[in-house]
Every structure is written in C-alpha cells, then in structure tokens.
Amino acid sequence: MGQKHMVEHASWIYPSENIGEVCPVFRKHFTARPGAAAKLEITAFGVYEAFLNGQRIGRFFLAPGWTSYPARLQVQTYDLTALLREENELTVTLGKGWFAGRISAGVYQAIADGPRLLAALHLTDADGTREYATDESWQWAESPIRFSDIYDGEAYDARVTLENWRFCRTDSCGKQMLIPQEGEIVTEHECLKPAAVLHTPKGETVLDFGQEVTGYAEFTVQARAGERVLLSCAEVLDADGNFYTENYRSAKSRIEYICRDGIQTGRAHHTFYGFRYLRVDEAPEGWQAENFTAVCVYSDLQRTGWIRTSDPLLNQLYQNIVWGEKDNLLDVPTDCPQRDERLGWTGDAQVSIRAITCTFDGKRFFSKWLRDMAAEQRGDGAVSHFVPNVGLFTKDPALFCGGSAWADAAVICPWQLYQAYGDKELLREHLPMMQKWVEYVCRAAGDSCIWSTGHQYGDWLALDAGEGNYTGASRKEFIATAFYAHSAQLLAQAMDALDMDGAAYHRLFEAIRAAHQNAFPDCRTQTECALALHFGLAAAPDRVAAQLAELVRSNGDRLTTGFVGTPYLLHALSENGYAQTAYDLLLQTEAPSWLFSVKMGATTVWEHWDSRKADGSFWSTDMNSFNHHAYGAVADWLYAAAGGIRPGKPGYETVLFSPIPNRRLQRFEVVVNTPHGKVCSCWKWNGPTVTYVLTTPVSAEIRLGGEQHNVAAGTYTFVRGGYDKSPYEAKDFLNVRR
Ligand code: BGC
C-alpha cells in the first residue's frame, strides 16, 4: 500500500439505523487552542463532502473518486489549519456514489453493504497532539439529502434540520486497499448562465445553457417552506422543439429540491448530470432564470493544447471536441456523462487518448486509471471493456471482457502516455499488463495468428452495414487480428525503449502481419483499409491507399467508419499521398461528417454520425448520446497532421514538424505545451504562397513537402511557393493561456 496513513487507526463507520435512501451526515466536535494546526485524512466507500465549521473542506467534488475499490481506494489529505476555531464541528455527508449506487449494480457488496466513512483528524496545539479517528464516538443524523444516485440524481429537503444525533456503528471492512490520492481531483470549473429561456410547443419552460456540460445545476430562489424546485435534464430538443429525455434511457437524473422559508441556494452534492437544457417543472413563484447556473464538473487537468483556424465551423468542431473531452474526464474516461452508462469504456479511451493528451496533461489522470485496469486484469490476461469493472461484467464475464480494440487499451494507452510524456518508469510499470494482454490474444489466436473468437464489437457504430446495425461491415476477425498485430508491435517497441529484449514480439508482429495478408488479401471497407495502412499490415500500401481514397470519393467524399476506423482514417489518407482526400472528409458538411453535427448546432461530439438527421429526427433512442468523445479523436489529426506537431522522441524530447497546409483553410495555428516547453506551428496562405512559423523549445526536424531541416530550439519562418512580403505574425496566438 505504500505510504502509511493515519486512517489506519480509524474504524469504518456508518449509521446505527437503516435510513433507506437518505444520505447520512456524520459529525465530530473538538476544541483547539489558538495557533493550532490540523490535518484531515479521509476516504469513503461512497462519495463524501466534508465541512469544518460549515466551510467546505477542499475542492474535490465526488471524493474519494472512482477506482477499483476492492484493490485501490484513494485517501485524501487536507490541511484544516485555516478553518480552525476554538470550538470546532467537523461534518461529513455521505452518498452512495459509484460504490453503492445503481451504477455498480451491487458488485462492491462483498466489501460493505452500504456507504462507509473513514477519517482521522490530527490536531496539534499548545496542549499537545491529538487524533480524532472515526469510531463509535462519532455521531450521525439524517441529512437533508433524501436521495442520491449517480444515474438517478438527487433530492434535497431544505426543511430538514440536523437533529436526533445518534452514535455510529463501526464495521470491520478492510483497509488493505487504501492508497494516497493518485489522480487529478474532480472539481468545479466553468459556471454558465442560461443563454435563453425557451417556451416549447408543448408549453414547457426550458433553460438553454447554450453548451452541453457535465456537472450540476445551482439555483437561488426565494420561497416558502414546502415549495419545490423540480428540474429535468436534456441534451437536445426533439424535431418539434420539445424537451427530449428518451436517450437518457433509465437514468432519471432527478433534480428535486424542497424549500425552507427564505432565500436559499440548491445544488447537487453526491452526483452529476450531463445536460444542456433544464426544464423547469416546478419552481417558487418569481423564480428568475438568471439565478440558475450550470456548474461544470470534471477532473482538474491542465490544458496544454490549442487549435485555431480560419474556418469558423472547424473552430466550432474543435471547441466541441474539447468540451466533449472535459465532459468525459470525470475521474475516469467515461463514454458519456448522461445516460445509464458513464463507464470507463476502454475502447473509447483508447480511441481518444492521442487527442486528449495533446489538449490536456493527462499523465496523472490516465496513470491512475491504468493502475485500476492492471488491478482488474484477469489472471489469463483478459482486460475488461470498462474500468473500473462494475455491473454487467460480473454477470457475464465472457461478454464484457477481452474484445479487440477495447481491451487493446491495455497496450495503446500506456504507449501513448509514453509518447506524450516520455516517462519510462510509467511505461515499465505498465509493461506486465501490456504483455499479459498480448499473451492472452496469442493464446486465443493460436498458431494461425488469426483471432476469430471472443466477444467483438467490430467497427462499433459504423455506417457501412446499413441503418440499425451496431457493428459495421468490417470483418470482426480482420479488426481483431489487426489490433493483435498492432499491440504486439507496440509491446515490442515498448520493450526496446526499456532496453529489454523485444525481439520475440517483433517476430510475432511479422508473423501476424503475414497471416493477416494471407487471410485478408483484400480490404472491403474504409475501416479495413485504414487499419491495414495505419498498422503497417498492407502488402501493397499504394493499392490500399488508392482504394481507400476511392471508397471515400465514391461515397460522395464521406466516411462510413465507426469507433475503430475513425481515429486512423485521415492519418491513413494523408500519410499515403491523399491529404486532399483527408481534407475532403474533414471539411465535409453533409452527413455523415464531423461538420454536419456542427452545422446542426452541436456543442459536443455525437455518439453516432446520425445521432440527429437533417430533418431533426434521431437515429435511435437506444445508443444516442450527444456527448460521446470518441469521434473527437480527429483532433489528433488536427494537432499531428494538419498542424504537424508530433514528438520526435517520446515526451517531445525532440519535435517533428510536418504540417499539411490546404488551400481551403486560409490559416491554421496550433500550440502544444509539452514537457519540454511550448511547441507552436502556424501556417497561412498569402496569395499563392504559404508561410510557416514553427517554434520549438528543443531540437527539431522540420519536414515541408520534400524538404527536411534539422534545427535547434528557436522560431523558424518558411515561405514556400513564392515570395511573401508580410511574414505571418503569430504573436497573439502564442500567448494563449489556460
Ligand atoms: C458505450 C460505448 C462503448 C460501447 C461498447 C456503449 O454502450 O456507450 O461508447 O464503447 O457500448 O461497444
């Protein structure tokens, strides 16, 4: 468990009576002399909010976060010195959260049959040193939070006063899973006011925040006791402009608040919501839209990447991608933040990690999550399709475990962290997990090297198998074997990087490649072409690239790829001589395309290319999130190909510039704050010439067309295609900060 915690001496506590859905509040009184110092160590099975003398402790919303609880539970440490008085009251409310709520479907029952609190307060003053650790002397009462669940929302009764305090029970559930805080904390960020108040054809009153967010609603009202604020959440309005909630499926996302007398402010405490619209189902007379706020909640990742272009639609797409990333970085990389999933789907994370680690410093965030993945990896090497591994997986292990492209996150994600941050120790730590996964597939594929078993999602949500099909037309064994090859190759490269002997895995890659070529002499879909090219599997890359370009062209310059092919599609084109075709896809505004959703008013990235059709109807209610980050993976192409910034050596120890200008964009600017400093790439057309301004904090290789320059740290301007009298001035963009 590493470092010792004071909470080792504490006991897990819980209410001495069953209070059903109501969240308990715990308290401890203590005195402190002037000049005292205090430190609190605290964690929970469930999610807690702690207060000292009524002041919220720390900024962590939904603490202690979500980890693989049986193996790992984060303990937070807070310095309370500034909040101390002579007479002190520490109070903590506790919700079911991920531990005991509907999302975990009872999988953590074996550890504890409900939420539990563990805390120790360490006080030093003139009287010496004292410790107040949770035990039977702590008291509990019913809190005003009458109901709380990640999927189903929260109900709060402000009339409830804290009374009838009783002593706690203690529980002997273990402490072997305690670890120090590893990830970034989840906390409040932007606060948005309604951009409009809508009155729908059905007569509903709807607040439109103008942006789809993850977080909670905060509202201030003047009321009489017993009056209520009842709100419903939605991502979109339907084709008629009415409030639409069907795509939340079974997630109730309740926001219920019963008022006391006077002016008061309500908000969520132990849950979160994904929404752009709030329907005001009930509110005290005289409520004002301006007193409602959408408070954004997500992990506290440092922003590191920015893109700006001359094309407003493309800029909006990029903004949507960044919002979609933020909205889905809530302690684990979720698939979506609103419906009855919100799980750390491994496939989705694998798809987006290259883009996310350009936009944000994801090192701590993903390292924590990968440790949970490793903790949950099965003995045979299988990796579950969502981490932490809850609910569905336990009911049918075969169904939610060990599928290609999803479980390959076990290799792709550590490798990408190494590319982005250059941390060899982290790579070394994850190597056993990477290797065990490849060995698992090796056994599943056997001597043929063709992997044709197991639960496979195929090219999830691809469009090439017709309406209503979830898995696309690409052959599942084509995809599975391609990812097997890719993971074997990345593993071999990881071993090389760590000065280990990766030769066996290089040979394995070659064997799988040969088998793949043999079994699949032809590609049949855009995704198959993209994988064959990007994973280096194609025997005749030129022919496959031409085929891919033709598949795109004959489809009206439009894509058909799903989760698996989309991240590689533009790379496969631009790296094989079809940059124009890549731009055709990028700038396409008719469905299916990235910019179609932008044209339709999206503020995040949709799960399905057809989430909403041109006539405003929806493709389905079942699998139709408007805030899925997966297709936002295209931002990786914007950073690395269009803007042309890549690590030359892992962690950007050196930089490789290979920007791809295109006439349909007048200007393109990218900044990435790397571990070695700020890297910038800008290009701009001036009549027939293009001017590049490239800044590197380390030595770099610059590739422009056929040219290659090796340069030291500095800023370099190139004008190509003619003489340019007014070199592009990039100053204002370079000053962009978080
Ligand atoms: C999720 C996905 C996930 C998929 C698995 C969906 O329900 O929302 O994003 O990857 O299932 O195919």
Task: Please tell me about this protein's structure.
It is a single chain. The chain is of the alpha+beta class and 738 residues long. Helix content is 25%, strand content 29%. The chain has 16 helices and 36 strands. The strands form eight sheets. Strands 11, 12, 16, 17, 18, 19, 22, 23, 24 and 25 form a ten-stranded mixed beta sheet that branches. A six-stranded antiparallel beta sheet has the order 5-4-7-2-10-13. It has a five-stranded mixed beta sheet with strand order 9-8-3-6-15. A hairpin with a 2-residue loop joins strand 34 and strand 35. The two termini are 35 Å apart. It binds beta-D-glucopyranose (BGC). Beta-D-glucopyranose binds next to helix 3.
State the gist of this model.
By secondary structure, the protein is of the alpha+beta class.
Query: Shape from CA axes?
Result: globular
Structural class: alpha+beta
State the major sheet.
10 strands, mixed
Share of helix, binned = 25-40%
Give every kind of bound small molecule, once each.
beta-D-glucopyranose
Question: Number of helix segments?
Answer: 16
For the structure shown, list the relevant keywords.
single chain, 738 residues, alpha+beta, six-stranded antiparallel sheet, 29% strand, disordered C terminus, binds beta-D-glucopyranose
SSE layout and pairings?
Layout: E1 12-14, E2 24-31, E3 37-45, E4 47-52, E5 55-56, E6 73-79, E7 87-95, H1 97-100, E8 116-125, E9 128-133, E10 139-142, E11 145-149, E12 153-157, E13 166-167, E14 169-171, E15 178-180, E16 186-192, E17 196-199, E18 205-223, E19 228-234, E20 236-237, E21 243-244, E22 254-258, E23 262-266, E24 273-282, E25 292-299, E26 305-309, H2 312-327, E27 329-330, E28 332-333, H3 346-359, H4 363-376, H5 392-395, H6 409-421, H7 424-445, H8 476-497, H9 503-519, H10 526-534, H11 541-554, H12 566-574, H13 579-587, H14 594-599, H15 634-642, E29 645-649, E30 654-657, E31 667-674, E32 677-686, E33 689-696, E34 700-704, E35 707-711, E36 714-720, H16 731-734
Parallel strand pairs: 6-15, 12-22, 30-34
Antiparallel strand pairs: 1-14, 2-7, 2-10, 3-6, 3-8, 4-5, 4-7, 8-9, 10-13, 11-12, 16-25, 17-18, 18-23, 18-24, 18-25, 19-22, 19-24, 20-21, 26-31, 27-28, 29-30, 31-32, 32-33, 33-36, 34-35
